[in-house]
Amino acid sequence: MNAADRFLIEFHRHFPGCTSLAFADGKTLGSGLSSYELLSDLVTGGSVLDLGCGDGHLLMLLEQGTRASRVVGLDFSAQELASSRARSSHAALVRAAGQALPFASQSFDLVVSHLAFHLMSEIELVVEEMARVLAPSGRFAAIVGGGPKLGSSFEHFLALVASTQAADQRVPRIGDMRARTEAGLHELFAAHPAFEDAIAIEDFYVDIGGDFEELWPRLATIYDLWHRSEVEREALREATRLGLDAGPGIDIPCVMAMRRIIARRRADELT
Q: Whole-structure pTM over 0.85, yes or no?
């Protein structure tokens, strides 16, 4: 296991549910849907795998839709899966990594992943495994990204974090940048013999804002705060509040750039 994977396991051991805390209530500009709903709305039936299911927020939406005949959640964090088990009544939960999926070939009609795929190491193996477990014409759909919209409160917050970060507080390089860029996604999927050449890529913005007391816990979920002491966190909280001029009850937009990708497995059985 590499340093990035060890970091992720340790972080999510202490902070299960951090992703849904930050994004479950966020709304995409335009549609008003959450980033989770942009995945759950794709389900039209059949079997669905949530790759990197975290605390099960997306699984809960998949179950509420009742359109899937089978829902499975997979994560390599035991603590995240424990949270999933508490909120998901029907989904099968499996502890494993995306690079070695413990499922038979052609097991799923849809694989979804919310802000997890781009964090995975050895990403070519993950793509190979999805090609294997997807049925012919099955789809892989993921939300990736999470960077700030230029000029947003999130950009201001990240600048503060960077300006106060010591060398020994830096997290290891996580994931593969190809999962975040259009060219990289085409390299991973369109060039793969099991997937169709056309990849649907949709860029959008999501606002996770609120008043400062609502916003701060969402901002504080970022990995870069993992090594900060409580004193440092509190100082950063106050600096963020002052920088945003966040008075009581004032709504603060916090807009992030994201991307939804959909790759379809070919109808034939080439892999």
A: yes
